[in-house]
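Assess the record.
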Amino acid sequence: MSEVLCVYQIPIEQGNEPEALEKVIRETVPGKYKIQKGSEIVPLFFGLKALKLQFIIPEEDGSQDELEEFLNELELVGGEISLDFITKL
């Protein structure tokens, strides 16, 4: 089965630390998704920041939608996530 690399920008709820959001994601992400080591904190606007993470997901129908739904439901996420990059591995 092929895999896909997806890079997501995940806004951080104001008043929360990027490290806390990253820890929650890494500890609760469903097992079929892998998170690459390392992350990046990027500025958005008005002092808000986002966490940029790389995920390796299976290339199957619905995988990307399931991952995005999981990320959007986390309490520490401060808005809509965005897909920055995607490529087949």
